Amino acid sequence: MEGIDHTHASAHHPQTLGKIEALNGHLRRELLQQEHFSGAEEAGAAIRRWILHYNYERTHQGLGGVLVPADRFHGLSDLALCNLGKGVDLGERLWYGFSGVERSIMNLTADSEGKVTLYLLGRPITLR
Q1: pLDDT averaged per 10 residues in sequence order, the chain, 128 residues
Q2: pTM of the model
Q3: What is the largest CA-CA distance in the chain?
Q4: How many Cβ atoms from other residues are within 10 Å of residue 31's Cβ?
């Protein structure tokens, strides 16, 4: 229905598991090691919020530092780039049919040891 195919990956095969392992690492560092949850329901809600942010708000270096994964998934990459070239603030537009999502070209994260990372256009910049 969504055009997503299930693929079986070989165990210990980073060529097929790399993207999901990277996602798991981001989730662990940016959410699970930062917050404590009183139960599965609270954890599930936090993970859903984080996934929304990761896919719709946070720009990714692998997408040129200005696009979010949802741009590519929904076929809006060319339109987003065209509008950026015209100076349109992508955070102002309700791209995906729901409100409350604001695109950010700058994000700040901290891990459990207090290491702060600034993401500017999807590229990590470690602050000391």
Answers
A1: 71 73 87 91 92 84 79 81 73 52 62 71 64
A2: 0.61
A3: 46
A4: 19
